[in-house]
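During the reporting period the student researcher (J.K.) took over the structure-prediction task from the postdoctoral fellow and processed the backlog of single-chain submissions. One of the processed entries is reproduced below for the supervisory committee.
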Amino acid sequence: MTSADLILKNANQVITLAGTSDRPLKGIDTNTLNIIEGGDVAVKDGLILEVGKDLQIGSDKVIDCTGKTVMPGFVDPHTHLIFAGSRENELGMKLEGKTYLEILAAGGGIQRSMGATRKADKAQLMTEAKKRLDTMLLFGTTTVEAKSGYGLNRDHEIKILEVIQALDETHPIDLIPTFMGAHSIPPEHKGNPDGFIDLMISMLPGISEMKLAEFCDIFCEKNVFTREQSERLLRAAQEHGLGAKIHADEIENLGGSDLAAEIGAISAEHLAVTNDMQMKKMGDAGVIGVLLPGTPYALMEEHYPRARAMIENGMALALATDLNPNCWTESMQFIISLACYNLKMTPEEAVVGATINAAHAINRSRVVGSIEAGKQADIIVLDIPNYEHLPYHFGVNHVETVIKKGDIVVYDSRPVF
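J.K. obtained the following structure tokens:
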């Protein structure tokens, strides 16, 4: 009899998402999830060995999943993980009616986080980010994209990227680094955004050579960076082997989503005020829309991304937390609920957006995001009878067990890493 290191037995549902690694999913229906009822999953040497029913495979370690749901670990493809300090005072400003851009202009927002992050050394940033990652793992996230962007100069941006690299080497969660030095215009470049973009471009060769980032991102937004500035930076990043991402159409539509389609960006992110023509362009170009429903929730904004229109216009969608000091949540389960209740995504679409499509958005679909033989064994066991309970029963943590690269790192809802 074949032997395995670990077997998950008799799950009420195994959400496999099998056959979805080649391209991100569009036009999703229930069958896309490829559910096995009463299913088993066998793990060996950090990989998924076999998936099916009544597997005839032996193991000294068996987890009984009766009545529970087994699915791929969540992939969070948009976070600003590395920062110091907090901005809880801004909640009161939002309640008074202050907008995001007004808070930014008053020295809050990214500028405040920049100040705290510049003062922090690597050890402090490591400690604070590790705490967030620990919480994410407890809530079932096993792969995270992490952007820089609270340093806003050469030394501090490199510092942040090096912290991301160190955490990737020491924490169970896999971290995918993105250089986002163009997150805001720092005080020393006020009135000279083009000069700041020149500085960011001058950093690209070193970042590429040191392998500190896989992607480059920029905040294309009013009073931040124009479409033209965004194009200049992202095309330069592509020339240095970095994939292009873009914060687009979050508050005002400056054409960032058009740019994403034109340059072949892997993803465009936020998209709260994107129009139908732009959606169609991105759908045709294969740009993945990374939607962040926690952000308008935290900003108390009326404009949520029009997910239904995006799907109708042929876009593949992923979901992410946008974890940052303004939208401080580590829970992809909460994001799945928001996606259903506020973006009108179906539970199937939300599950796909938080797993395999999220993996596509960071170029990891061949490794994670589905439960198939040969893939990395990143698996979660949820104490719910089916995937529909994820958005339906919200505000709690459903995750009971987390398996990362074949190792049990959370068991009985407690960390064991």
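The committee noted the following: The chain has a mean pLDDT of 96.
J.K. will present the remaining backlog at the next meeting.
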